[in-house]
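Pipeline run #58 for the internal structure catalog. This entry was flagged by the ingest filter as a single-chain record with no existing model, so it goes straight to prediction. Upstream metadata was stripped on purpose; only the residue string is passed forward. Reviewer on rotation: M.T. Logging verbosity set to normal.
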Amino acid sequence: MIKQELLRRDPFSAATPGQSLTDTPKQWLWEQPAQFSDPVEAFDKIKKALDDPINIESMGKLMFAGISIETLTNSIMSKNFSEGLISPDVAELLKPAVVAHLLKTANNLGLTPKILNEFPKEPVSDIEAMELLKDLNPEKYVELSKKNMPEEEEPLQQGFMTPREGVEQDG
């Protein structure tokens, strides 16, 4: 569940466009040369980490819970890139090897993992979209609800001063 205070954040407190071009260069790990440029060396490092008993147990539990190998692989590659271990190119080259290693791990644990993420078979309905909007962006939900509410018609006048239909009025 998304924390509500994140939704209330001031949209103007974000970085200005182009700010990263004026920041101090090389302050982030991914802005520096990767530790491993050779995919074989990088895979050996990643494989060593994946073969740690704690990581085997964690990956097994995640695969058992239904997290796809595709998602796990993308997470592993993103983590290694953000820590400055590999470049995005090496990450893409390593994905098939990491998938194969995770499949092997799942097989050793007796699991039948979900390999790829699936796209929804049917589009999200308007009702589901509105429910998500209600939970994630209540202000926008209220705004849309007000716009889509039918306008109230003026109540019919009643009483002895109300002109009758079909009778012409003097004017």
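catalog note: Residues 31-119 form one domain.
catalog note: Helices lie at 4-7, 39-50, 53-65, 69-82, 88-108, 126-136, 138-148.
status: ready for reviewer M.T.
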